Amino acid sequence: MKEPGPAAAPPARGTFAFSEADEERRRGVRRMKTTATGLLIGVAVVYVLATCARQAWGAGGWAGYVAAAAEAGMVGALADWFAVTALFRRPLGLPIPHTAIIPTKKDQLGVSLGEFVGENFLSADVVRARLHALGIGGRLGAWLAEPEHADRVTAEAATALRGALTVLRDADVQAVVGEAITRRAEAAEIAPGIGKTLERVVADGGHRRAVDLVCAKAHDWLVTHGDSVVDAVQGGAPGWTPRFVDRKVGDRVYKELLRFVTEMRDMPGHPARGAVDRFLADFAADLQSDTETRARVERLKSEVLARGEVQDVIASVWTAVRSMIISAAEDERSELRLRVRSSLMSLGARLATDARLQAKVEGWIEGALVYVVTTYRAEITSLITDTVAAWDAEHTSRKIEAHIGRDLQFIRINGTVVGALAGLLIYSVSRALGG
């Protein structure tokens, strides 16, 4: 079994490998070189034979015409061979000035190419004119108005959103969210806002349902836990009083308390309810205007925010939001994706027909691209310059020759043919004038 040969060495740093298409092009260049060289040899042979026929074999005047044409054809072929070869290497290895242009002038060509691109493709006027001619607004609107296109954009956006949320570290985001919420809560004074809200609630009577609920719950609790109230009263009595007296006092307190709560529950106009209304109204006013009350609320707010349990709840907000968004993004029939799809189609339909909106969108796009082009033009052109400068000179020369060498060999062929025709014409004119 044949042993495998050594692995091919990777291309040198700053070079690019030849593809199969490049190798095919190089074979085509070699075939054309053979054809052009064969034509040069052919006209040389014709020249020798024609010269011998005229001088040694006594041929007629036609031999002079053939020799002149062949001689000029050789000159044209050799001149074009020199010109084509000088682009990529030194002809015959001789250090002739202004030869091997591509290998020696590669960096200058890269700079010139970068400047050409910058001046002719990356100018603000060119970008604006090209974008304006494209009519991006109308095209984009018509494209988005198609349901399948809106579905595609929605799916791509959902994928990107899921990817972004997956990459983000929960701990980092939770810390940022927690800090942002805490900082915003600490910076804003909440007492005046609470006071205004409470004032509106009291004015509208919205607090009365809460009072009804408290009274109902208090009544039910007293009915269920009457013994607890009696025991509490007995436990607070002096030690020297008889127990039966303590018991009667406890029963009396319990009955009066139950009667009071029952009346308060059943009588909307009970004086205690009015006292609650006045208390809440006064408290709402103090929250807005009383300095001491406001300061106490702020201290309470800071104490609540500093508690670990509250910070855990704030941090868990991100986890809940993240799970909700990912779930909605993955579900094709979720409300989020349906709304996004509907919004895209609506935007597309409007953009396709509304000339003012088209102009506005195109203005945004043009402005953004012009800003990028004018701001980063030097970086973009330096990408071309630096890339060309990093290429290996010999490898670059072979690469370019593979792409354009076949056409250049046609120049050699054309030079041979045109040279022969020119030589024949000159010889004919000179013979005519001499005759």
From TrEMBL:
Keywords: Membrane, Transmembrane, Transmembrane helix. The chain crosses the membrane at residues 35-57, 63-88, 410-429. Pfam families: DUF445 (PF04286). Coiled coil: none annotated. InterPro entries: DUF445. PANTHER family: INNER MEMBRANE PROTEIN, INNER MEMBRANE PROTEIN-RELATED. This is DUF445 domain-containing protein.
